[in-house]
Records
---
Amino acid sequence: MEKQTRTPILSVLGHIDHGKTTLLDNIRGTAIAAKEAGRVTQHIGATEIPIDTIKKICEPLKRDWTGIEVPGLLFIDTPGHHAFASLRKRGGALADVAVVVVDVMEGFQPQTHESLNILRLLKTPFVLALNKIDRIKGWNSKPVPFCINYKNQPEYAREALDARIYEIVGDLYDKGFSADRYDRIRDFSRIVSIVPVCAKTGEGIADLLLVLIGLSQKFFERTLRIHLEEAGVGTILEKKEERGLGTTIDVILYDGKLSAGDTIVVGSMEEEPIVTKVKALLKPRALQEIRTEQRFERVKTVNAASGVKIVAPGIENALPGSQVRVARQGQDELERVIKGMKGDIEEMKMETSPEGIIIKADTMGSLEALALELKGEGIEKIKKAEVGCISKRDVIDATTVKDRYLSVILGFNVDILQDAKEIALENGIPIFISDVIYRLIEDYENWMKQEREKERRVLMDRLTTPAKIKILPGCVFRQSKPAIFGIEVLSGKIKTGVKLIRPDGVGIGAINEIQDKGESIKSAGQGMQVAISMKKPTVGRQIKENDVLFVDISEEEIKEIKTLKGLMSADEEEVLAELLEIKRR
């Protein structure tokens, strides 16, 4: 059976506005400019760049291409960590190599950290493209290789860039990766390459492509070899409605061959996978022909690795992020493929808990990425994790969760159906939606913080809470009937009507009134110095200057207060422990 080295699949990740799309556009543009060396076609959700075109772009670097067998590079054209997470195959990531784009001035941001977490989880090698080097003071960026342009920069600009690179090296070290500037590395399989680039001018594009070709060849000498005649396997990028075609699926084929007329098994939102026949395979025309009315051309067969649009009946419920597999050689083979597909979807299902939050996402991979980040934040209880829009059923399921902080729905890159909105409002179910995972989790955590603070204030106003005061020396205004004297609140909060006890457990009566600067107030918090009046004690007998007194709390209230663990401050918990010790003695 004929074997061939397939094109490595690359994904571009990074924080918002760090230049992922500009970088891809520049790689495409540079490749088109060098197209005499080889036809460049932007496929479905991907851009293929042949090795001859890459050699032409990298010509100024004068490198030896002996031993390079990879036929080119296939860039997945859906930038963003969530898209990358969606690109799964059995046992790991669909992308062979990733490019993490970082703004040289902004450094690591939340989405950069998310991207690195996903790369570590999926054990994917990556290159770090340090973008926007034209923003370095004094740097003169040109559309040439970085290592050539670096020599022509003023010394202060080179030093400023090197300082930024060392910061990035430190950030990567904290994440468990060794890294250095690419031209200082000997062992590319152990150390992460940092390639300074300017996506706007095209500086460093040649360096980046060279490193990616070398890394692909080094890491995937064996795994990139595929049997051309094997049944094709791919991952669904997107499901789309195309005029005149109906529902279509955009697929990255990463193994084997796919032909029109093949029976395919497609991952579904329902329990059973979809079994259908390929009606047509479509590819966009070459970039130089993209303006013509016929956007797509029909092809009979595609080989891995490749992007393709599949037209087939009954694929309305196809699940983005799941697999597409060709089933050949009759019914037995078909049943084996269906069983394998069910196993894959079963494997992707998460552990659920009856008391947990509900999460929804646009693809299976996004769902996994969201669950992973929630776990990293200590939120592990998930009641339901599904692909698709937030529905009325999701809201009803959320109402059955007793813990109000878990009775919520988090939606990543999805919409809320109208009837779900209405029932959520009726039942007070909070719904959080974002197309950025870290922002989604941040919104949920901020809401929890605010709600807990509200709850704390309501409960603390209702209950007698732990507090400790000190009688200020030289501030006794009346000794008895009523005793009026100045105090400082050392911890907690005092209110009118609360009873006070001494450290020996003797009660001295209740606070009648609290005054601050001659005005009556209902309560006084930690750090405040106020005057209080009490009917029962006599200053100089039962109490003295500098005495420390505690708010007395009944056994019933102590039991209720103990349920407020996490709502009391550390100082209040300390005072409660002291009070319990007094009562025990």
---
Amino acid sequence: MSLKPLSLIGRVWRGFWSAVDSTRRATMNLLFLILVVAIGWGMFAGGVKPLQDKTTLVLRLSGVVVEQHTLNVRESLLSSVNGDGRKSIQLRDVLTVLDKAAADPSIGIIFLQLDELDGASMPQLREMGLALERAKQAGKKVLAWGGNFDQRQYLLAAHASEVYLHPMGAVVIEGLGRHRNYYRDALEKLGVTVNVMKVGTYKSFAEPYIGNGPSPAAAEADAFLYNGLWSTYTSEAEKARKLTPGAVMAYIDGMPALMEEFKGDAAKAALKAKLIDGLKTPDEMREYVMKLGARDAEGKSYRKIAFDEYLMRQRPKLFGDAVAVIVAQGNIVDGVSGPGNTGGISTASLIRRAREDSQVKAVVLRIDSPGGSAFASELIRRELEITRAAGKPVVVSMGGVAASGGYWISMAADEVIADPATITGSIGVFAILPTLEKTIDKLGVHTAGVTTTWLADAYNPLRPLDPKVASLIQSSVGHIYDEFTRRAAQARKTTQDKIDAVGQGRVWTGAQAKERGLIDRLGSYQDAIKAAAQRAKLPEGYRVSYVERETSRLERVLEMLGVSQTLALKIETTLGLGPVQLPLPGAASEAVGRDLRWLADVTEHRKPFAVSAHCLCEQP
């Protein structure tokens, strides 16, 4: 066979590949040129256009308030463009915007629009409320308007100078409490046996799988907890609105009579109860803001700047002595976890990174976690302990929940600060092992085999749990509880017996925990940062640095340029630098599916000696 055809094919292929390579280089060079031009424009084109006087900051909070975004940068871009996923707003961003606006002479009014605020814990609402109070003290007019106000939205709106409601709206304050699902009978019908080993009278995590209702101890603890949280809610709302104590309960109790008096008009009922200052449609509200502030260039609306745009104007300090903030949010799991979650290895590495940074002088651990793996929790606690030993103060700031494993990781701090409405404590541990021997028996399936020791295949979910295995696990659970209470006693400078008395898996509000010596003091997120700075003897002007996962070069460039999410995604996809589509988490599953999936996950991973420190608790 002649080699000439092969040679010709080779030359054609080399030419084709050279063209592809040249095109790739030209595309990358074009992207680089675009970025250079954008950087030059930002540096030399006069910078950010200054705001005019009497500008209104529109705080339209859309989504769920979180301590840290769960999606990474690329996922956030895709979610924004596709309209998929649940939006989130970082608490730190809201506080930054409000505190900067309070000191900004160009901002005259802060206008809260809360119809799309889907969720926030009570401590988060209180943090934002404190920031609104600081803005009012600085002379800013704070207005709130909503088509309706649910219970969470209203607690934030109550901090406004004036609160307005749509004439067809309502203020819906219902109180606190919840009902859990209990699966004992259902699991028995399916042939599932749930084996639970625990320490703690009040450790109720596993009760839904082994009972048809709460135990008396769990019911007692829940009632005490919810009454404490409700007292915090009502007193906060009444103080913010300058209402007499008991006004919120009077509104709820008197709702039938109020609705009858106003022939079902819930808006007028809220006005009569002084929960709001007036009733206005959107156009009436717009005219009112124009009257208080200034008209825009077209004269059709008021002069304004949106939350996202104002946030982009704030440039954090990049150098100098710093207080590092590390967020521990969500379930605590073994290994590495993504953004917005807490992994034993990944979160410990963030703490180590802060410790080894010469510019970081103190660390704040911001916790919003119900716990999880006891082993992962200990990895995190140990890194904090080493950080203190290295001479860097550690302050814990408890958010919505800092219980069980979330409390464990707080035990190596110089100071623990919680909100009165924080859910904390739950010093207790458990292990749960479901077995399916009755299920497979109904199906006519049998399991058998040979092992060299009785421990080989000791936990097989298709066989009854060996009593010797149960004994080993209970022993391990008891040991971990002893470690938990011993470390807590050492951290709180008390005795193990006293910790055991307020432990036993029982959850407390922050205020109740303070009374029982489980925290040092009540305070805000800002209080924790200030406390860390004071312990490190930092002068005024220190910076706050959030220690998070490393971002890619492209992400850092886009963040530096302040490129919008939509434009950033278009740049990536147009130039072929990222996927056009990415699987995103769907909507939150129903409670039953979530509970049963958790039980199935325990079975699938087969970790019989993995002890959990989880409280099954959340902000109501």
---
Amino acid sequence: MLLVICGLPATDFASVEAYPLSLEQREHLKTYIPRTFLKLDSQRQVHIVALGDSVTWMYTRDDNNGNWLLSYLGNFSTHLAREFFYPGGVRALNPEDGKPAKLKSHMGKEIFIENLAIPGRCALDALQRVSTDAFLNSPDLVVIDFGINDSVRGHSLDSYRRALQRSVDACKAAQADVIILAPSIIRAGSGPMRWGLTRPYATVAKEVANQNGVLFVDLGKSLAPLGGGIPAGVQPEAALLTMSDRLGRIFEFDPMPDPEETLHPNEEAHAVMGRALFKAVIDPAPDAEIYDLSAKAVVVDNETVKVTATLRNLGEKPRKGYLGALMMGQVLTPANPYQDFDLGPGKSKDFELEYKRPATPLAPGGHVAFDVADPNLRLSYFVVDEERSRLFDVVTRLAPVSIEWTEQRFKNLKDKVRFEWRFVNGSSDETSGRYRIGMGDKAVSGWVPFKLPALGAKKFEATFPFAPPKGAARYKSAVFVEVEVGGKTITFPRELEAIRDVALGERTALSNYMDYGSVNQLPASGSADLPDGKGGVVMRVDADQNFLYFAFDFADVGFGPVPNTPSLIADIAIDARPVVEVGSFGFVDKIRINCPPTDGPIAVDRPQFAAFGDGAGNNVVIPSGGITAELKTITTGERRLELRVPVAYLIRYDGKVGDPNSVLGVNASFSFSSIDDKGQPGFQPEGRYVHSAPISGPGQTLYMRDPRGLGRLRLVNGQPDTWSAHLY
């Protein structure tokens, strides 16, 4: 009987974890983790830092919750300790409360792991750690693993790519080795098997790793074999769903499985991922692949994309099995996902697959757009035979043409806005056609001819009048490019969100979240000037050389006591990076205030690292007590929340009060608690008011910690005539 350890045969385990290292293994280690290998080889102290989400943190639904030593990071480090003879094993620095620092109390040299992962975080959140505390202990190796939350929330691949690149840059600047991991697979979203949500992010992670010459390890692919093999002759749908059900056992926890768990793998799955990570680090020779999968994609119409996927048998014996097409993120769902194959040695088979796009009202005939800055299709498939299941990704261009928006952020807008994009030819032949671009319901350009070289790209631009409704504080407008090529009409829709810059001393009405996107007026004074006479929240900001002063007036909004729940949660975001960086890609957190229903001073939560923008430096801690808040009742009988932020806390900011070119990024979000129809306390969307709404998802806006979604505050008095905007 063949012994299996961590999902792999014991013979495979022994072949990798066998000292001394071969020459090829040594060169592989020197190439990808040179600093770490130098210390491992001489048995000096090694320090590993992990950046990631709840999977890296080891969220489980059993007693192992938060025990980093049992996570894939702990398993990987344990394998390293065995390989390089660290008799003390692995030690977790600052483990979670109640969790051990070591699994066994062995004495001797140790490998240290520092897990800086935070459940619920996204790739952009890595910028917080790499600009503050990630390098405090001078780590030898940094492991980066994000993508699950990005995929669930619908973050753009462009944002994900930028965050990974900035993180790699920071690691290299700190002279730390770095490994980029693809996120583990999750069972979420739409589609028959629901396994494809994270896969586009996995392909981007691989591209970033390859472009930077760092090691890439695909945790999702490492779990795919747990779906097992299926014998030939089974109905394809039954075969693939059986495989999917088996694979779903990675989410089962004792004593009773939770059917709601679809994201977090169990301890056994973590062991498989840790083993795969160790094997990729130590072994330069990946397992020989017996299949090759390629694909070509053509737009049929605004709803449908046709894909020809070609599977080739690279082995020396016949193969029978099944191909299962997965959803492409939140954008494409396969209409005929279950296929079978019978391939002789060296033979191939074409599968004609149809994918559908969900509709959106962004433009006439428009549908959910592909990523704002990525013109590629990123398709994924399970290939299952009688031996095992495998996961394949295919990155391909879209024929006849796709679009990449090269300009997505706009500032100092007055009377016009210029859009910039590239058309990308997805075919091997020269392509010609015509296009028109539209903004809103009426502003549509004339038809413009274009020609693209084979597999080439060309940049285009168009300028439109920028004329928000008079007195508006913010508004949204559809933007679309319509292309006629090869007898087809293709629409590429997006949306522009514009926010009027505000000045010191100016009163600005926030939007009710349920109405966000509709025109919102700027009241000149008093609550009676709120939009349509409704109640709501009005913001005013003042400043001097020492403080920023925020005042929020509440008119006719619920502010009563709710059992065991704050009456109001206020989140204030400030982008206080240098003026030239304000509003650009990066990280900004929030100041959170939990308000009781009664007047008086309110304790303010200490802001997180890099709360006012990434790049503040290692371990810059904002002191407690310096940011003050108070709730009061003013003479009109309305309630007012006042917040005072010391300018000294805006460590990187170089603007000055009174300088018209000095701007800060700002956002304010207020959630009022209430009792729902079932008598439960909570926060409902209709009780939320926002200055801007950086909440991601299909057809929505940016991640709440992305400063590109914030409005802009000019540090002068007087009403500005400028706007900022972003395309999404």
